[in-house]
Every structure is written in structure tokens, then in C-alpha cells.
Amino acid sequence: MSSKPLITIAMGLFFSLAGVRAGAVESNQIFYLRAEAAFQQAGKNFTGRTNLSAAALELARASFDLADLATNDTQRAEISRRGIGVCRDWLARDPKSAAGHYYLAMNLGELAQAEAPSLAAYKLVHEVEREFKAAADLDMRFDYAGPARNLGELYFQAPGWPLSVGSKHKAREWFERAAALAPDYPENLLNLAEAHLQWREKDEAAKILRLLATNWPVALTNLSGVAHEKDWRDWSVRRTAALAEFQKAFKSAP
Description:
Elements: H1 25-46, H2 53-68, H3 73-93, H4 98-115, H5 119-138, H6 142-157, H7 168-181, H8 186-198, H9 202-222, H10 229-250
Helix pairs in contact: 1-2, 2-3, 2-4, 3-4, 4-5, 5-6, 6-7, 6-8, 7-8, 8-9, 8-10, 9-10
């Protein structure tokens, strides 16, 4: 399942991992109901099995997915704290779990969004960074190069020092790692293309958009089914926007 690593930090404090960039309210309601059902089922599966990593992973992931679709900050905070608690207990038993560190970072990001703007949210951004780095050290390929992808988004979207951790150099480094590790995962190429467009790097953006076009049919086959419906809605919108931005900026097609 996609991590949907959309990180937006405003004033160095507002933090959102995986907010939807565009889409219909009706679709969001369908996705929310699915995520809520998955969260409830994961909670039931986790009850009495708290020592099993598989059950912890299911609940941690479901917590993030539902928190990401929450309609208010109170709900987002409550749900993400459930995922955070599960991950902290999981990592206490298995500190070398890449998945544990990864979903701890994802849920911490949701909590930071819920608590922003605040000093607590600012501090959480740094914890998110540490946990994604820990996941990357353990398994860079987890979730289609998710640790690299999310670190890239973090550095790309966050303001720079001293407000936050933003860095063009680091964003480029981690985006390129994610794209190299999992080029058949559309989000990795989309992130890199969007970064090149923002930096007005024509040749680099054109190269990645052409590669995305080549890999798109393969991804459609490999990433099918209900689990990826929301991903494809988001990716399609972003790809269309990236192509339009390229044509607007450079007066030509990629």
C-alpha cells in the first residue's frame, strides 16, 4: 500500500504526511469508510495478539491510513496516537524492525499535523526524520523505497534551517534514491519530477516524465485492485498537473 508521502510544512510547523492533493469529496468518503473498516478489523485482530509483529504492522498501517483521511484534528490525533503506541511497543520488542520505525514515523507525522502550529509539532518533525532514517538503515526498499521517498518529501516540503529541516540537497538525494530503487512505483518518479519542475530543471524533469510514461502501463498492471484505487486517483491527477506545469514553464512537451 502506498505511503502517499505528501508532506506539507507551513511556518516550519504544519506537517501532513499523505494529504490528498486533489479529488472528489465523494471519493474521499468511500476511501474513509474503507479505512475505518480496516482500522476496526485491525484493532480486533490485534487484541490478544500484541506480541505478533504482523498484527502490529496491520494496526499501525491502518492507523496511518485512517488518520490521513480524518476530517478534524481531534480525530487525527486520537487515531495516530493509537498507531504510535502500537509502534513504540513493537519496537521495544524488536528495535530492528524497519516496518516498525517506518510506521512510527508515518503516524508521528499525522500527529504533528494535528498539533500544528505548536512547538510540540516542530519537535515531532525531527522525530519523524529520525525514524525514517532508522527505517532506511534497516530496509531502504520497504514500501517501494518508502523511507527514501518520505525523507525526500520531508526535506523538499519543509522550510530550511532554522525553521525546520528542509534542504534542497537532501531532497534531491533521497528522491533520486527512491526513484532508482523502485522506478516502477509511480509516486517515486512523480515526486522527483515535481521537484525538478519546482527547481525549473527542464532536462531533468523531461527525462523523469518520459520514464514515468514508459513505466505507467507496468505499474497499472502490478499495482491493481481496491488497495491502490486511491493511489491511482492521486497519481493520475498529479501526473496531469506535472505535464501541464512542464508545458507552461517550458513551452513544450517533455
